[in-house]
Predict the 3D structure of the following.
Amino acid sequence: MSKRTIVAMPGDGIGKTVLNEAIRVFDAAGFEADYVEGDIGWEFWCKEGNPLPQRTIDLLEKHKIGLFGAITSKPKDEAFEELAPELKDKGLVYSSPIVGLRQHFGLDICLRPCRTYKGNPLNFIRRGPGGTIEEPEVDVAIFRQNTEGLYGGVEWSNPPDQVYDALLTHPKFAKNFGGTPKEEISVSTRIFTKKATERILRAAFEHAGKYGYKSVTVCEKPNVIRETSGMMYKMAQQIQKADFPEIELWNTNIDAQMMWLTKNPENYGVIVAGNMFGDIVSDGFAGLIGGLGFACSAQYNPDTGVGVFEPTHGSAPKYAGYKISIVNPIAMIESACMMLDFIDEQKIAKKIRKAVAEVIAEGNVRTYDMAKMPGREDVVEKGAASTQQMTDAIIEKL
Ligand code: NAI
Ligand code: MG
């Protein structure tokens, strides 16, 4: 078989560090690939006025599979301030390159699995009967619609007349908002399309079927957000009945789900939600299995086969400058394993996950977050593993 070419997009800060570690693990695990570097992030905004240069889009167009580290985003004023002087009068506006990638390639399926590793000192524990301590084993796969909903960008402050007038055509809306001048109104919409909703629901059910999860939970708020959440749940009922009768369909409200997180997280299998609630519920579950050092994700378009795999964490600029890197590479390594699953290299992914599990279970090598130390530069001197040492330990197991 010909060698794969992977577009490696390190981005900014610790994104560069952890991506490199994932490639070291791939090499050690015998995954043969060529890596081409895709420019993305703050550096390219400052130098070129574009954090997602066309050449990076072209690379992904060609090779389809990308590993992504993390990027830095800054508020509007700072973004302008740091732009190269010759670009300052060009009217450029910063926008997140990762959102740009999602939109350009229609990466509408976002999968964020959260699985407990035995022996991880960051695992959630709770009280059981008779003063016992329970450590529930979490194994959920969260499917988040990645391109529309509340993050779809359809929003206005001081909305244009057409929007304001349309709002006031409805008597109830006119009653609630008609007394407020439009300069005092901000609107952020939540648009769900049937097509995208069906795609995320089917992806969730198919995943449940493929990996043996017994239930799919729609986590929205259909009792209040009746149209969009309501549509999603109704479509889930139809899809389940027609094509996945062996899988149970559950329905939770996002607010209650966040409360149940600490009560019975082990009961959930696949969870599916719109963009915003998917973001929230996946962070919630990630907190139970170790937080940002462990939270991985995949985003892909099943039709084109384009996929980008990235840890959930950002560029952690504070840590990026440390002489010895202290951040946990596992979130990136896990994301890279999701890439392997996606391109049908499950065997190598399994081998890497086993090595990670062994290192965590043994407990001899722990990055600062696992060792529960404050993230200072001297943690390695004090006994925490550096980023490289953690990777080395995983490689040794391989
Ligand atoms: P962050 O995720 O970069 O860092 C928050 C804190 O989480 C860090 O200070 C550190 O304590 C911890 N942390 C993060 N990654 C870790 C790891 N691998 N191991 C151990 N601990 C880890 O989020 P923050 O500070 O809110 O944002 C920093 C920059 O990253 C911002 O410019 C933000 O816009 C960007 N960002 C980018 C994302 C992306 O590329 N997808 C996602 C989130 C934030
Ligand atoms: Mg988030």
